[in-house]
Amino acid sequence: MAPPEHGYALLFVSGRFQGTVFALPGEGALVLGRDSDAELVLAEDLVSRRHAELAVKEGEVTLRDLGSTNGTFVNGQRVKKVKLVVGDRVLVGSSLMKLVPAPAGAQATPPVFVTKTRAQASMQGKIEEVPLPDLVQLIASSRKSGVLLLKHDEEECRIDLREGKLAACRLAAAPGVPDRKAFWRVLAWERGSFELVPPANPAPPAALEEDVGPLLMEGIRQLDEWREASARLPRLEAKVEVADPLPVKLRDLTPEELDVLQAAMKGGTIQSILDRAPEPDVDLAKAIGVLLERGYLRVV
User: Fold this and answer.
1) pLDDT tens digit string along 39-50?
2) Sign (positive or negative) of CA dihedral 14, 29, 82, 71
3) Of the N and C termini of the chain, which has fewer Cβ atoms inside 10 Å?
4) Which stretches within the chain are classed as H helix?
C-alpha cells in the first residue's frame, strides 16, 4: 500500500494536547520518551527516559519498545516491535495517539509538555475519537488503575478499573443498575467525553473483581444484538402499560417475558423497565419487542 501523499503523523486523541498533530519524518527514526533529548518528549513518570522508537522506512512505519518499564501498547496490546498502519492507536504513558495521514504543511514540532507525576497523569478526550470498547481495552491491557469518567449527552458514568479488572460501574441517573449491566450499556455510547483520573485513596470496596477482556467480548456481542433489537422498539422514552384484558394466558410466556411483564406492571417508560429489571438490556429489548407484538404490552 502506498504511503499517504504527505507522509504520516501522530494525532494526540487524549490528554492535555488533544488535537495536536506531530508529523513523522519521511525517512528515519525518532525516540519517544521522558528524556529531554528525545525527539518527542512526553515528560511524565509513566514514561521511561527512552520509551519507544518510531521508524519510517520505504513508506512503512515501525514502532519498537525500548525496554520501557510500563510498556508500549498498540490497539490495546502490549508490543515489542510492530508495523503500524493508519488508524492504529498507540498508548505511551497516559498519552494516546493515532497514526494518521499527515496534513499538507504539518511540522514535526511537538507540543511543550509539562512534567506530570504518576498521580497527576490522566487521559481525556472524545468518545468519537476513541470508541469505548477500544479505550477500556487499552486501559485494562496496560494494567492501569483509575476511574474512567464518561459523559454522554445528559448521562454520566463512573467505571472503576483496578489493574486490568472491573471493580465497579455506576450510572449517575440509574445507580440501581447492576455493575456488569451498566458496563455493557455504556459500550453503546458513540459520542461524549472521557477522562481517566487517579484512583481514590483509600479506594472504596470493589463491587466486582472481573477481568475486563471477557466482559468486553460479551459486551460487544450484546452491542450488535442490541442495535438490531432496539431498532424494533418505540423510543425508549415511550410509556407502556400492560394490556387489559391480556390477549392470551400467561403460561404461554417464557420466564424472561414474564419477568418483563412484571416489571411493566409498575408502569413507566421502556427505559424504566430496562433500569428496573436485572437482565441485560439486549435480552429485555427482545422480550419487550415480543410482548408489544403479541399485545401483552401497549404504548400509552
Assistant:
1) 888 877 778 999
2) negative
3) N
4) 132-141, 179-186, 212-230, 255-264, 270-276, 281-293
Q: How far is CA 56 from CA 3, 205, 240, in A?
A: 10, 47, 59
C-alpha 279: how far from chain center: 22
Residue 82 identity (one-letter amino acid): V
Q: How many Å apart are CA 67 and CA 90, to the nearest integer?
A: 16
pLDDT top residue among 238 and 95: 238
DSSP 8-state class, residue 199: P
* pLDDT computed for residue 18 by the predictor: 74
Instruction: Give the 3-state secondary structure of residue 247.
Output: coil
Helix or strand or coil: residue 239? strand
Single-letter amino acid code for the residue at 3: P
Give the global pTM.
0.74
The set of residues, in sequence order, having a beta carbon less than 8 Å from that of 9 and lying 6+ positions away, is: 21, 22, 23, 24, 99, 100, 101, 102, 103, 106
* pLDDT, mean of residues 120-135: 76
d(CA 67, CA 104): 34
- Is the bond preceding 245 in cis, omega lying within 30 degrees of 0? yes
Backbone angles phi, psi at 126, to 5 degrees: -110, 135
